[in-house]
Write a structure and sequence with these properties.
Bound molecules: zinc ion
CATH topology of the largest domain: Aminopeptidase
Strand content: 25-35%
Shape: elongated
Number of helices: 7
CATH class of the largest domain: Alpha Beta
Radius of gyration: 29 Å
Distance between the termini: 65 Å
Largest sheet: 6 strands, antiparallel
C-alpha cells in the first residue's frame, strides 16, 4: 500500500539514521540524517517512508521517525498570535524545512494567524494561504521596524582634542581620549543601524567650538550629541552622569539618553538640566551635551577605559536616540 501526502513531513527521531536508495536494509545507503531533522514525505510503503532531501530522494525505516501531517492546518489549534508580513513576496513552504516546496508568496501587509511552531518555523494561515515561514525572517523584519535611526543624520561631537585636553583623571588620563573612544564606538553602532554619521573631529586635533556647531547647523542634522566626561578631584567619590540642553524642546532627547545610559551602565542618573554651553546654544538643531562619568573617580576612570563599558554607554545612547526618534515617552 502506498500513500502520497504532499503536505506531510517526516521528523527524524534518532542520530545517524541511514537513508537508503530503496525500501529495505539490503539497499545502498545514500546518506544519513539526524535527530530533529525534518523532510517532506513523498510516500509511505510498509515500514518505510520516502523523503525528499536537498537534491535527491531516499528511504527511512519508519520506526525511527514521526510523520506529521499539515493538511489539516486550519483545523489545528490556533495560538491566537498573528503576524504581519512587512517584506515583499515572502515565500511560504509546505513544511518546516527548506527542502519543502514553496506553496505560495505572502504579500507585503498580509496578516496571518500562527497555528503551530517548531524551533525554527511558524506554520501560518489566512483565508488565502497556509504554509511555513522561517522565524528568522520575522525576526529581521521586526528588528528593522524597531530601528528609527536608519537614514537619520547624527553629528557626534567628541569633546576637546589636540591642545585642549579637557578634564584630567585620577591617574592623569585626559578627557579628550575618553570622548574620542566613545565617539568611535557610537559612530560604529549608528552606522551599522543605517544612520548618516558626521563627526566634529576625526583624530586628536583641536577644533573650535564654533566650527563644531556650524557643522551641525550646515547639515540636515536630526541630533547633535556632544560627549564629555567630568572631573571633580576634590571629591573623588563623586560619580554619575548628566545631560544638558539649551532649548526646552530638546529636553526629552537629553532625558531619554540619560535614562537609557543609566539603565545600561547602572550609573547614577544626575538628571538633565538647562545649561548655557556654546555647542548647544549656537546649535539650531536638536542638540544636547552629555557628561558620561567622572574620571576623577579612580574606579570609573579604569572602567571607562574598557571596551565593554564603552559599549554599554553607547548602547544606552543608541536606545535613547531610538526612543527620541520614535517619540516614545
Ligand atoms: Zn569636557
Amino acid at each position: 500500500m502506498a500513500t502520497a501526502d504532499k503536505s506531510a513531513s517526516v521528523v527524524v527521531n534518532t542520530d545517524n539514521l541511514n537513508v537508503r536508495s530503496s525500501p529495505g536494509t539490503q539497499h545502498e545507503v545514500v546518506t544519513q540524517v539526524h535527530s530533529g531533522d525534518v523532510y517532506p514525505m513523498i510516500q509511505q510503503q510498509d515500514k518505510w517512508v520516502q523523503i525528499r532531501l536537498q537534491d535527491q530522494k531516499g528511504w527511512l525505516a519508519s520506526q525511527y521517525v514521526t510523520i506529521q501531517s499539515y493538511s489539516d492546518g486550519k483545523q489545528s489549534k490556533q495560538t491566537g498570535k498573528t503576524i504581519t508580513i512587512s517584506k515583499e513576496k515572502v515565500h511560504l513552504r509546505g513544511g518546516p524545512a527548506s527542502t519543502f516546496d514553496i506553496v505560495g508568496f505572502a504579500e507585503q501587509g498580509a496578516e496571518f494567524q500562527i497555528i503551530s511552531e517548531t524551533e525554527k518555523w511558524y506554520e501560518i494561515s489566512n483565508d488565502n494561504l497556509t504554509g511555513f515561514i522561517l522565524k528568522d525572517i520575522l525576526k529581521s523584519q521586526q528588528a528593522e521596524s524597531n530601528n528609527s535611526i536608519k537614514n537619520k543624520t547624527i553629528v557626534i561631537d567628541a569633546g576637546h582634542g589636540g591642545r585642549d585636553i579637557g578634564a584630567i583623571g585620577a591617574n592623569g588620563t585626559y578627557e579628550k581620549h575618553y570622548t574620542y573612544q566613545t565617539m568611535r564606538e557610537l559612530k560604529h553602532e549608528l552606522t551599522m543601524l543605517g544612520a548618516d554619521v558626521i563627526v566634529t573631529r576625526e583624530k586628536n586635533e583641536f577644533v573650535s567650538l564654533a566650527s563644531r556647531t556650524s557643522l551641525s547647523n550646515l547639515n540636515q542634522t536630526d541630533a547633535f550629541i556632544s560627549i564629555h566626561y567630568n572631573s571633580f578631584p576634590k571629591l573623588p567619590s563623586v560619580t554619575g552622569i548628566s545631560a544638558y540642553y539649551y532649548r526646552n524642546q530638546y529636553q526629552d532627547l537629553a532625558r531619554y539618553i540619560l535614562e537609557e545610559v543609566s539603565k545600561e551602565t547602572g550609573v547614577r542618573n544626575r538628571g538633565s538640566k538647562f545649561a548655557d554651553y556654546q555647542v548647544i546654544r549656537q546649535n539650531l538643531k536638536p542638540a544636547i551635551l552629555l557628561e558620561l562619568g567622572f574620571i576623577s573617580n579612580p574606579e570609573k576612570e579604569k572602567l571607562l577605559q574598557t571596551n565593554a563599558y564603552q559599549k554599554k554607554i553607547v548602547t544606552g545612547i543608541v536606545n535613547g536616540l531610538n526612543r527620541y526618534f520614535k517619540n516614545e515617552p
